[in-house]
Design a protein that fits this description.
heterodimer, A: about 270 residues, alpha/beta, six-stranded mixed sheet, four-stranded antiparallel sheet, B: about 290 residues, mainly alpha, MetI-like fold, 3 domains, 14 helices
């Protein structure tokens, strides 16, 4: 599926090939990821699930360029990743808003660090915040906002730099259940409207199935890709259901059961 | 049965339960309602009593000295302290001394606090460097720095600089350790966020590390102003030509006990003024920078 307005020959958005990562600590060497290969197409929403410590967050650090792999290669749009790039947006479990900056100044941090034109960035930031229902809080401090609002501000900060690829590292897990459901609905809507390529890392199977086009299951350490499957909801009709609607589709329970079995969660000792 | 299982004398429990049944419950409620409620007096009454304590203490001191219950040669007495205060403020070079002590305290406070903050935050740049330097900082912390005062006066001379140096020595280590604690508390994810946005180390330091450490540094200002004052007085004790510390030492050695009290009183007032100013500064900084 080529993106229509792209004139150059299209590469996959992300190509991970044979990536292995060893951690070295003074007393030992840990194999965190073993021979991971994964391709993400342009505009695709991929979710990675796995038990904690399986290296799924580490994989995102590698894609973002914060960490170099021990072996293997990672390409974004056909180019080898060497260092963090503004074309990649990274969202964390915590909103990581700076408490001493107002919401608008938090959203503008990327533009500030990259030296982007302040006036243009400011207009875009205001526009994003208004759209995400934070129009009245531009000059509030993060401490005055609820958890859900803070995470929406963090999303605005991520999208303000107009990245093509988004890496979401359990961005909803610090929120309460209701907020999490509502926000994942919102975020999925925003991201599909903006046609972003997304890699979501989560331990929440339901979140993965309902939000992503494809779910990757990772094994326990050392992290390997155990399975991957497309999540289609033919019972809903030709269009993709929103995450909230997807949870009510008959296919949801089947996907959930299969992925649950693959995760081997009951084997934890 | 339960009582037996618990090893309690069943019969007594049984009796209490039988005879006191309903009555016991009402008594219990009455007791429960009588929670200790402290009556709070009005502010005027409290201030009046506070003043009464002070006046009572001064009168008692005066009377005790007058009737030789305490020896006025060693303890002096409020009336002569008062007249000495008037003489000291009108005839002596009181303001030279006050200004001298004030200046060395403020300089020591500023140098010690900023120097310590800069040193503490510099540890962020290299973990190896922090590892190498840290044991020495902790050693310095454990040295009673006032014991170094004679050495400091020897090196820096009798003037203002040696007092500034003792005040600095007292404040710098605490500031360093506190700023370093602030560095260690910098959010790892926020650091990752900055790097993922392509920030340079200098940008991370300027826009993340320094602002994160400011609340930590602000929190030691009040402690440091007291320490700086102690440092400059001890510096004056060792050797000095001016200052309230020197006045105390001089008056003590010539048995002018009233003058000792006068200097101590002025010193307390000075300390209070500086403390209140710094507390106000802290409030402003917390509002402006932190929240």
């Amino acid at each position: 599926m080529a993106v229509p307005d792209q004139t150059i020959p299209t590469h996959p958005a992300v190509e991970i090939q044979g990536v292995t990562l060893n951690y070295f600590t003074p007393d030992r060497e840990t194999l965190a990821l073993a021979n991971v290969s994964l391709t993400v197409e342009q505009g695709e929403f991929v979710a990675i699930v796995g038990s904690s410590g399986c290296g799924k967050s580490t994989l995102l650090s590698l894609v973002s360029g914060l960490l170099p792999p021990s072996r293997g290669s990672i390409r974004i749009d056909g180019k080898e990743v060497a260092k963090p790039s503004p074309r990649v947006g990274y969202m964390f479990q915590k909103d990581t808003l700076l408490e001493w900056r107002t919401i608008i100044d938090n959203v503008l941090i990327g533009a500030e660090l990259l030296g982007i034109d302040k006036i243009v960035a400011r207009r875009r930031a205001e526009d994003l915040l208004v759209r995400y229902g934070l129009g009245d809080f531009l000059h509030s401090l993060p401490g005055q906002l609820s958890g859900g609002m803070r995470q929406r501000a963090a999303l605005a900060r991520t999208l303000c730099c107009e990245p093509d690829l988004l890496l979401l590292d359990e961005p909803f897990s610090a929120l309460d259940y209701q907020t999490r459901l509502a926000l994942s609905d919102e975020v999925a809507g925003i991201l599909s409207a903006e046609r972003k390529t997304v890699i979501l890392v989560t331990h929440d199977i339901g979140e993965a199935i309902s939000m992503a086009n494809r779910v990757i299951v990772m094994s326990r350490r050392p992290g390997r890709i155990k399975s991957e499957r497309k999540t289609d909801f033919p019972s809903f009709g030709p269009t993709r259901p929103t995450p909230f609607q997807a949870r009510k589709c008959s296919e949801f329970a089947n996907y959930f059961q299969t992925i649950w079995d693959e995760l081997d969660i009951h084997q934890i000792h | 049965m339960n009582a037996k299982a618990l090893g309690l004398p069943g019969r007594i429990l049984g009796v209490a339960r039988l005879s006191d049944g309903a009555k016991g419950a009402t008594t219990q409620r009455k007791i429960a309602r009588k929670l200790p409620v402290q009556k709070i007096w009005s502010t005027t009454a409290l201030v009046a009593l506070q003043l009464a304590v002070l006046v009572g203490f001064v009168v008692l001191w005066e009377v005790a000295a007058e009737f030789k219950i305490i020896d006025p040669f060693f303890w002096s007495q409020p009336s002569s302290i008062w007249s000495t205060l008037v003489i000291f403020l009108t005839q002596g070079d009181a303001f030279t001394d006050i200004a001298f002590t004030f200046r060395s305290t403020i300089f020591g406070f500023i140098i010690g606090t900023t120097g310590g903050a800069v040193l503490g935050m510099s540890f962020w740049w290299s973990r190896n460097y922090a590892q190498i330097v840290q044991p020495y900082i902790i050693c310095l912390e454990s040295i009673p720095k006032l014991a170094l005062a004679p050495l400091i006066v020897l090196v820096f001379g009798m003037g203002l600089s040696s007092k500034v140096a003792t005040a600095t020595a007292l404040t710098v280590v605490v500031s360093t350790l506190t700023a370093y604690a602030g560095v260690q508390a910098v959010d790892r994810d926020q650091e990752r966020l900055f790097y993922s946005l392509g920030a340079s180390r200098w940008q991370v330091f300027k826009k993340l590390v320094v602002p994160s450490c400011i609340p930590w540094i602000v929190s030691i200002l009040r402690v440091n102003i007291g320490l700086a004052l102690t440092g400059s007085i001890v510096g004056e004790f060792v050797s000095s030509q001016h200052g309230l510390g020197r006045t105390i030492l001089y008056a003590g050695s010539t048995y002018e006990i009233s003058l000792v009290w006068v200097a101590v009183l002025i010193l307390s007032a000075l300390s209070m003024v500086m403390y209140v100013t710094v507390a106000w500064l802290e409030k402003v900084l917390r509002k402006g920078v932190v929240h």
